[in-house]
Amino acid sequence: MRRLGTVAVAAMAMALSACGGNDAPEQPQDGAELAGQGLSGPTIADFPVLQSDDCADVAQFYFDAIAAREFDRAALVWDDPVVDDARLGALFAGYTQPKFTVSDIRRDEAGPSESCTITGALADLADPARVLREGTVILQRAAGDQASTPDQQRWRVQSSDFIEEMQRAGRGGPA
Question: Which CATH topology does 47-166 take?
């Protein structure tokens, strides 16, 4: 029994020395290295609601992600390299507890794409004295007969004016 304990202690000491051999602090990895290790941020596939046929479900996911300050998740609804988690975080930095209240949902199915206009108000639950900001978020997707892939059938934010007028960069949108 004593020999087994000695072997275990020696093995632990070797493992610890292998971990601490370099006194230099570990450098943070860039996104490409993390992605190669499967440690990238969330993806659209992680959230089935983003494939929903109901634009209200997708809009609620977006609003909930912002309220939770999970801007990487909110950016998935934009699916636009220009509107990323850093940009959304900066836009909503002045809101400690952002809360969206939806007042109207309107769908337009005319033409080669469908749009969904969500009207509402943005408040800061941490600052009740802050004036409500009314605004709209417009989601868009390719119309059913125009969409050839599930990705084209997915709702994406086209624009939002709750904080400032933001438009998609025009890449990766519906047909």
Answer: Nuclear Transport Factor 2; Chain: A, (3.10.450)
